[in-house]
TrEMBL record:
The lineage of its organism: Eukaryota, Metazoa, Chordata, Craniata, Vertebrata. GO terms for cellular component: early endosome; endosome membrane; Golgi apparatus; plasma membrane; synaptic vesicle. It is found in: Endosome membrane; Membrane. Residues 586-650, 683-741 form the CBS domain. InterPro entries: CBS_dom, CBS_dom_sf, Cl-channel_core, Cl_channel-4, ClC. This is Chloride channel protein. Gene3D superfamilies: 3.90.1280.20, Clc chloride channel. Belongs to the chloride channel (TC 2.A.49) family. GO terms for molecular function: antiporter activity; ATP binding; voltage-gated chloride channel activity. The chain crosses the membrane at residues 80-101, 162-187, 277-295, 315-337, 357-376, 428-448, 455-474, 502-527. It holds the Pfam family CBS. Keywords: Antiport, ATP-binding, CBS domain, Chloride, Endosome, Ion transport, Membrane, Nucleotide-binding, Repeat, Transmembrane, Transmembrane helix, Transport.
Length: 746
């Protein structure tokens, strides 16, 4: 593809007719040529061609001198340097966010007197007065009511702690939504739908900017600490992409090429994934993991958030409840997507969307008021999931581990047999059931508000609660009915047969899969979060089942649904199976004005300016003449505007009547004629073309895999029409009985 960052030189007029100088554009490229406007789509093939030309130029110059050779080495290693910087900054921000969230979440309930910056757990770590029975209580940590009144029990103490908990939650959420609204509106939401769209080639200026990075980092801590049913994993993807964009601006190799810039962020949400990007993403992940390990935000010297270590293997018969959890995850995912999209659509189309601050305050208030009485909803969602994943050992003091022990038991502490549930377990089951209903409902209204909000942790919490309940039920059935045929072969009396924590982990994977429709990557994510590599089969069974069940009600995951709701121009990976042709989609249609084109040697500057003024097309085909309509190439609108503007300012003799030439050489002209303007160098001589009888299935595949901005439709070399990405998306929407005009696309 021809590079569009400069204009070819001209032959002096005196060589043609002996009068004056025929000037073409300056040979040196000038700013903004080849760039894109906001809310436009990039041309991947063009960006690839520009990078190839740049690399070829650097390689040829590297042989001229030692300095040029050093510059070529620096250019080759700049990609690895960018990845190193991204890994360092992303890992540091992730660690700082985790530590800040832990501290501010505990701040709602109390404060550490020995060190104000310590969380509850850190405060009691340093205490020498903590007992095993009350490991979470230490004199250095005091709740607000105890600090203010000196009392630790009583109705007044409870109500005061209740009030301050709600007050802190409202303060954190108000501060978060205010910062987003005033300083960085793009910092709201999870960011994954927008990141997927940007990586597919769409331009959203400022979405990955410095202010967005700063505000997203700060408000993510505030939003999660407020106790709202949201997570930080999705927004961290946005933060990492902002880090990538920040460092890309330091290297011209990336800052001047939109295609190369997108390679840097593709380790998180890939649309097109070259092999070299895979290795660089691996390197960035390695650096980020090393940085996170150095910070040790989880306090367990491990890189995983929910480290698990079960002492009992799973059995084939347990695949039945695992698959049932997969069914639950698929149904939950379908319910959540439909309800959340309906609520977000209502937010966009009614007056509710005009009051984002009030909405956040209201949802936070309801969440805090309902969450405080239940200990499983009062704590942070990450702590809840961690407790649900844990196996009940001899040292556990959780209500979930309140089993009736056999006083004659002499087994080692890590091999405790199944036991009958005690009153604490039954009390916990009721509280978990209420927590499950609460999480299911409140998450629907929380995701999509104008604050940073991730969905991984809330979805995992719903699945983990359901899984733990199922796990305890199976465990008690196995204990009381070990002679049943389903338990007889693998669960003997006095044996440790069922691990409820494993069911919680499987349920978490199932619900997360039902919402996001991930399978392979979901299992990998669960490995990353838990370190439970040996439980790959239960996780895969639940993930695949949840996807099958959810897909039966609709193919879209939550992020694809939000992309469609917002009208982003994103081509998903679903197959296009309708039997239509390129001629059915191309423009112009019947009864429409003819296609706006430029001729190679008979269009004046005034004609071009008039065409640009009267239309809003991103580019124009260039033909031999209006009569033959034989295709020559394609020229971008922005390049025309910049080149003509630059010619009028810097080139003498270019007037409205000057003829624009896209040919190799301008013909000899009389001395009395205005000087011509040669724009050959901005002409793409190899635009992508299809015939009018090409199946749309093939056209959609071409647009998706090559990242095309547009393609031209021809018959025997004669131009018939054009198909843009917008036309493809509208046609796909129309074929799915959706509104084709809902796509936000220029």
């Amino acid at each position: 593809m021809a590079e569009a960052d400069g204009i070819s030189s001209a032959t002096p007029t005196e060589e043609l007719n002996g009068v004056g100088n025929l000037m073409d554009f300056l040979d040196e490229p000038f700013p903004d040529v080849g760039t894109y406007e906001d809310f436009h789509t990039i041309d991947w093939l063009r960006e690839k061609s520009r990078d190839t030309d740049r690399h070829r130029k650097i390689t040829s110059k590297s042989k001229e001198s030692i300095w040029e050779f050093i510059k070529s080495l620096l250019d080759a290693w700049s990609g690895w340097l960018v990845m190193l910087l991204i890994g360092l900054l992303s890992g540091t921000l992730a660690g700082v966010i985790d530590l800040a969230v832990d501290w501010m979440t505990d701040l709602k309930e109390g404060v550490c007197l020995s060190a104000l910056w310590y969380s509850h757990e850190q405060c009691c770590w340093t205490s020498n007065e903590t007992t095993f029975a009350d490991r979470d209580k230490c004199p250095q940590w005091q709740k607000w009511a105890e600090l203010m009144t000196g009392y630790t029990e009583g109705a007044g103490v409870y109500l005061l702690n209740y009030f301050l908990y709600v007050l802190w939650a409202l303060f954190f959420s108000f501060l978060a939504v205010s910062l987003v609204r005033v300083f960085a509106p793009y910092a709201c939401g999870s960011g994954i739908p927008e990141i997927k769209t940007i990586l597919s080639g769409f331009i959203i200026r400022g979405y990955l900017g410095k202010w967005t990075l700063l505000i997203k980092t700060v408000t993510l801590v505030l939003a999660v600490s407020s106790g709202l049913s949201l997570g930080k994993e999705g927004p961290l993807v946005h933060v990492a992409c902002c880090c990538g964009n920040l460092f890309c601006s330091l290297f011209s190799k990336y800052s001047k090429n939109e295609g190369k810039r997108r390679e840097v962020s593709q380790g998180n949400v890939s649309y097109y994934f070259p092999l070299k990007t895979l290795w660089r993403s691996f390197f960035a992940a390695l650096v980020a993991a090393f940085t996170l390990r150095s910070i040790n935000p989880f306090g367990n010297n491990r890189l995983v958030l929910f480290y698990v270590e079960y002492h009992t293997p799973w059995y084939m018969a347990e695949l039945v409840p695992f698959i049932l959890l997969g069914v639950f995850g698929g149904l939950w995912g379908t319910l959540f997507i439909r309800c959340n999209i309906a609520w977000c659509r209502r937010r966009k189309t009614t007056r509710l969307g005009k009051y984002p601050v009030l909405e956040v305050i209201a949802v936070t208030g309801i969440t805090a008021v309902l969450a405080f009485p239940n200990p499983y909803t009062r704590r942070s969602t990450s702590e809840l999931i961690s407790e649900l994943f844990n196996d009940c050992g001899a040292l556990e003091s959780s209500q979930l581990c309140d089993y009736i022990n056999n006083p004659n038991m002499t087994r080692p502490v890590d091999d405790i047999p199944d036991r009958p549930a005690g009153p604490g377990v039954y009390s916990a089951l009721w509280q978990l059931t209420l927590a499950l209903v609460f999480k299911i409902v409140i998450t629907i209204f929380t995701f999509g508000m104008k604050i940073p909000s991730g969905l991984f942790i809330p979805s995992m919490a719903v699945g983990a609660i359901a899984g733990r309940i199922v796990g305890i039920a199976v465990e008690q059935m196995a204990y009381h009915h070990h002679d049943w045929i389903i338990f007889k072969n693998w669960c003997r009396p006095g044996a440790d047969c069922v691990t409820p924590g494993l069911y919680a982990m499987v349920g978490a994977a199932a619900c997360l899969g039902g919402v996001t429709r991930m399978t392979v990557s979901l299992v990998v994510i669960m490995f990353e979060l838990t370190g439970g590599l040996e439980y790959i089969v239960p996780l895969m069974a639940a993930a695949v089942t949840s996807k099958w069940v959810a897909d039966a009600f609709g193919k879209e995951g939550i992020y694809e649904a939000h992309i469609q709701l917002n009208g982003y121009p994103y081509l998903d990976q679903d197959e296009f199976t309708h039997r239509t042709l390129a001629t059915d989609v191309m423009r112009p249609r019947r009864n429409e004005p003819p296609l706006a084109v430029l001729t190679q040697d008979s269009t004046t500057v005034e004609d071009v300016e008039t065409l640009i003024k009267d239309t809003d097309y991103n580019g124009f085909p260039v033909v031999v003449s209006h009569e033959s309509e034989r295709l020559i190439g394609f020229v971008q609108r922005r390049d025309l505007i910049l080149n003509i503007k630059n010619a009028r300012q810097k080139q003498d003799g270019v007037v409205s009547n000057s003829v624009v030439y896209f040919t190799e050489d301008a013909p000899q002209i009389p001395a009395s004629n205005p000087q011509p303007l040669k724009l050959r160098r901005i002409l793409n001589l190899s635009p992508f073309t299809v015939t009018d009888h090409t199946p749309m299935e093939t056209v959609v595949d071409i647009f998706r895999k090559l990242g095309l901005r547009q393609c031209l439709v021809t018959r025997s070399g004669r131009l018939l029409g054009i198909i843009t990405k917008k036309d493809v998306l509208r046609h796909m929407a129309q074929m799915m009985n959706q509104d084709p005009e809902s796509i936000m696309f220029n």
